[in-house]
Amino acid sequence: PKSIPTVFANNNQKNIQQGEHAIGLELFANTLSGFPATFKTLNSDFIVQEITETGEVCSLTELEPLVDRELERKEKAMLENTTVTKIIEEDDNDDDRGGGDANESSNVVVVKEEIFEEFKKISGSEEDVERLRAFLNTPGVRRGTQPLLQVLEDGGGDGGEGKIGILEPLVLAPSKDKEHRKQLHAFFRQFQLDTDSVTLDNGHPNATNGQNLCIRVHPSSGGGKKRGARDDDNKSKSNKRHKKATPDTRPKWPADLPTTLQFVMCKSGRDTTDALNQLGNLLKCNPKRFQIAGTKDKRAVTTQRISVYKYRAYRLASLNKACKDIKIGNFTYVERPLYFGKSMGNAFIICLRNIDDRLKETVIAGINALCETGTINYFGAQRFGNVSSTTQDASETSTGTTHKIGALLLNGKFKEAVDVILQPKMKESTKIKQAKEKYLETKDAQEALRTIPRFMHIERAILEVQAAKGRENDFCGQLTAIPSKMKRMYINAYQSYLWNKVASERVRKFGINTVVEGDLVAIIDDEDNGKTAEEIQKHSDEAYDKGLKRGENLKKVKLVTAEDVSKNAFDPSDVVLPVPGHAVIYPSWAVTKADGEDDKTLDGKALFHELAMNKDGVDLELTKHSIMEFSMRSYPGDYRRLFLKPKDLECEFMRYDDPKIDLLKTDMDAFVKKKMKNTDKDDDGDKKVEKKGGKLLAAKLSFKLGAGNYATMILRELTKAQAREYSSHENGDK
Fold first, then answer.
1. Dihedral angle sign, alpha carbons of residues 40, 43, 44, 47
2. Which of 436, 581, 596, 609 has the fewest CB atoms within 10 Å, measured from its CB?
3. Quick count: other Cβ atoms within 10 Å of Cβ 485?
4. 330 in the Ramachandran plot: left (φ > 0), alpha (ψ -120 to 50) or beta?
């Protein structure tokens, strides 16, 4: 059966309906009635937890760097196994050393003789054994020992102050045997010392003709040349920018430790980019060093994985005291970093408040219908920007302008695109609106830069170019200055708009949860079924090693034939629609005509192209300008499943009195003390969020969705677009 839109009861709902139609949200999957409700009243009303590629739901359970404590235990055990403390009697009769006892004793930690016997079996060189003994027992060489103060040549003389000398690496005797060199590398890893292979000049003391490949051992406290540094000292000295070598006092990275630290971040009311920027500022590193599998909502409590290259867990754990609304923990070291798309989706727990008691049965019926038929897998309104221009019609205020900017960019209308971007938006603070309105009056980019906040990266990128002398009208240059991810966002939004429109047309003609001749279906390889978590992880790592990223490795699809339909060869969940691009194929539906007329074919590609041309004047195949990043030729497209069913959907009703009370328990609660109002305690001391006598009714929804699917589309179907996102600053500043 075809989907029939709900009848909206008031003007506000009619405006919402018109605004949704403007981005292609035209149909529902069933004809049940909806109900009014409010979501995101508090950040804790919208909980998002990332699902890993092995199906595990991310949660924050531990803030302490336990993984480093285990490493410290192993390092301590290594130290105990390889060293011994000796009492050295020193004769101190020299007059220039001052008074004191004639004989003094001191404790010195030296390497056990057994270690040198082991090395002798590998090396076979008595000379190397003696040189290694002197090297390892030199303060500053092994981890945990400090270099002695030495008087350097440039700081010597009377009154010269002691300075830490540069510890030179140890170069062993040459060896042609590769297996022998491997054994030597492994031997030095127990001391966590870096080693490399070097080819010596014939003039070097250790060099022998034809056998100049040696193992070089570096002290843990640095010094000498860094690994990979040039051996040509003459070239280095001739470089005017060459700085005088100084000891590298940073701790060496443990030899057997994977170089990527992965941890879990839980944030509340913070944008993902904003949270990573704060971590980067506290670590004094570029936030781009952090890798994620996907961004998460701002007005929510979200939990996701983060990875960073060569940072120890204890350094990240120390940031918890300084971070506001962010907690990090569950540290582990892994071989490979995260990347966009390396997740199976998200688990959601959502609280819908202010539900009418008389509509409980309506809610239950809606939940049952969602479990049975699901909904249309539309791109959600947040894809198009939740804040719209204040100059838009009232019917468009529930949607954004992102896709419209995308159409302008594809058409080469760069001036119009800049104008729309710099327009005041409805949900912006009064201060920002005033700054933009003043700019529109004066066109003074310098003044606007002084008043527009730094977090508004897009607007500031445009204004910084505009403020440069002679570039006031360089609209193309202003747009290309926008960060790459944000530029792609506009074109992606337009692709999503076209997908929503065609999805509505397909469902209108052929119904919900159907498979018809000419549909596209995704093909799943049999070898992907039944894999263990370890096999899935290995497959993900192999994809990373090959450089495969989301969007570059398109799904395998095929056209459904009449024979496939007659055999029920495919499930409705397999049906996909293409996100338009240069590398996708399109469906071709067979449409049956009435009254004995000949059947005709509805070409999916023509449908996309006619919609783009007729509505926005966009040609999806021809480029109207020379800027490739604003051309469809730069976008391969993708495939998106047409129908969406939430997994593990459950509903629970709650009663409460205070609208400011937290009704849901989050990962943050265990680590952040909150002042709870009107709450009871159960016997275990946990929050008891439901009071039997509460006057207000809420519904707690929990479900899982795949990557790229929108929880707001589940809420839209359930409430028939009557759920409203709470806003505490609709008429003023935050």
1. positive
2. 596
3. 12
4. left
Beta-sheet pairing, 46-51 with 301-309: parallel
Residue 339's Cα: distance from chain center in Å?
7
Structure confidence by residue, pLDDT tens digits, 114-149: 888 888 888 888 888 888 888 887 777 766 555 443
Closest by CA to 57, choosing from 47, 43, 65, is: 47
Token digits for 244?
């005088």
Which residue's entry shows tokens 């009435």? 594
Token pair in block for residue 343: 């997740």
Residue 69 and residue 56 in contact, taking contact as beta carbons nearer than 8 Å: no
What is the per-residue DSSP string for 335-354?
Answer: SS---TT-S-EEEEEEEEBS
Q: Which residue has the tokens 């300075």?
A: 163
Q: For residues 13 and 28, give the distance between their C-alpha atoms in angstroms, rounded to a whole number.
A: 15
Residues ≥6 apart with Cβ < 8 Å to 605: 586
Task: Find residue 722's DSSP bridge partners.
Answer: none
For residue 250, CA distances in Å to 88, 223, 429 come to 30, 11, 45
Q: Supply the pLDDT for residue 9.
A: 38
Query: Which residues contact residue 15 at a Cβ distance below 8 angstroms, ignoring those fewer than 6 apart?
Result: 394, 395, 397, 398
What one-character DSSP code corresponds to residue 425? B
Q: Half-sphere exposure (CA, 13 Å, Cβ side) for 461?
A: 17
Q: Which residues are paired to 309 by β-bridges? A: 260
Q: Burial-class residue 323 by CB neighbours within 10 Å (0-12, 13-18, 19+).
A: middle
Kind plus residue range of the DSSP H or E element containing 40: none
Q: Which amino acid is at 293?
A: A
Phi/psi at 631 (5° precision): -130, 145
SS3 498: helix
Rounded Cα distance between 729 and 15, Å, is: 21
Count CB-CB contacts under 10 A for residue 600: 11
Alpha helices (H) in 264-303, listed in sequence order: 272-283
Residue 321 per-residue DSSP state: G
Residue 50's closest CA among 376, 288, 340? 340
Six token digits for residue 328: 């990090």
- CA dihedral in degrees (112, 116, 119, 124; nearest 10)? -170
For the stretch 593-639, pLDDT in tens is 655 555 667 888 999 999 999 989 999 988 888 888 899 989 999 99
**CA angle 265–270–272, rounded 5-degree value:** 60
Distance CA 427, CA 706 (A): 29
Q: What is the pLDDT of residue 491?
A: 93
CA 576 to chain CA centroid, nearest Å: 26
3-state secondary structure of 116: helix
Count CB atoms within 10 A of the CB of residue 164: 18
SS3 57: strand
DSSP structural state of residue 389: B
Low-confidence residues in the chain, pLDDT < 50:
1-11, 88, 90, 94-102, 105, 147-164, 223-250, 387-398, 546-552, 675-691, 729-734
630 contacts 488 by C-beta, under 8 angstroms: no
628: amino acid identity, one letter: M
